[in-house]
From TrEMBL:
Organism: Saccharopolyspora taberi
Keywords annotated in UniProt: ATP-binding, Nucleotide-binding, Translocase, Transport
Pfam families: ABC_tran (PF00005)
ABC transporter domain ranges (all copies): 4-239
Name of the protein: ABC transporter ATP-binding protein
Length: 257
């Protein structure tokens, strides 16, 4: 189980700052949802935590500073599933997911039976078992998205960063994917940080939400505290009402004016 601390994080590209002074914490085994309108800095924040874009501020896992760690060491602590991955041409689903085991391999870099079994199990749980020998180029968008998640899960890192993991998935596969993430989180104590456009799904799976606007934290708290009609109207320029499921989870419903 791993905790994550983000302290006064600022990040961007070239001379442009996209995220400014973001501070938040996620306890061991917690699930944080990062939401906000297009261009608010959600993906940039995750890339900064993963060490993929220039940034200042501090990122700590279990109190350990990540700045200066080698990529292999960082990959043992943080797994990252990008929204738009670069997929190798000609590689099979199994071989791609096995790349997630790389940080844990020995000097010879050879996968053992336990690595193969772990990957096979993940493919089955993500409804990819029948595609194990298919090349990545032959997959649909939703199949590729689940394959990218499988690779990140194969890392068995203490912190898992998911950037729009349900992109391209129908509602059934989206729910199944998030159910699996939640199941593994509870089994392994993984700490999850997820960006999501679907506010209803974010509310129903994340324990806490951070609402970004123009690269800064506009609100933070439980889904019920953050997802209010006034806040959503102001930040998203949208007409919405907030309904409730039988268990009290928020449902964000747009309506015509």
């Amino acid at each position: 189980m791993s905790s994550l601390e983000i302290r006064e994080l600022a990040a961007g590209y070239r001379r442009s700052t996209v995220v400014s002074e973001v501070t938040t914490t996620v306890g061991s085994g917690g699930w944080l949802g990062v939401i906000g309108p297009n261009g608010s800095g959600k993906s940039t924040l995750l890339k900064a935590v993963a060490g993929l874009v220039r940034h200042r501020g501090r990122v700590l896992v279990d109190g350990r500073e990540l700045a200066g760690l080698r990529r292999r060491e960082r990959a043992r602590l943080i797994g990252y599933a990008p929204q738009i991955p670069q997929l190798p041409v000609g590689m099979t689903v199994t071989d791609y997911v096995l790349l997630g085991r790389t940080p844990h391999l020995g000097p010879l870099g050879r996968e053992g039976r336990s690595d193969l079994d772990l990957v096979a199990g993940l493919l089955e749980r993500l409804d990819l078992g029948g595609l194990a020998d298919r090349t990545l180029a032959t997959l649909s968008g939703g199949e590729r998205q689940r394959t990218v998640l499988a690779r990140a899960l194969a890392q068995r890192a203490g912190v898992l960063l998911l950037d729009e993991p349900t992109t391209g998935l129908d509602i059934g596969h989206a729910q199944a994917l998030l159910d699996l993430v939640d199941e593994l989180r509870r089994e392994l104590g993984t700490t999850v940080v997820m960006t999501l456009h679907d506010l209803t799904l974010a509310a129903q799976y994340a324990e806490r939400l951070v609402l970004l606007d123009s690269g800064q934290v506009a609100a933070e708290g439980s889904p019920a505290e953050v997802l209010t009609p006034d806040a959503l109207s102001e930040r998203y320029a949208a007409r919405v009402t907030v309904l409730r499921t039988p268990d009290g989870s928020p449902v964000i419903a747009p309506f015509r004016g």
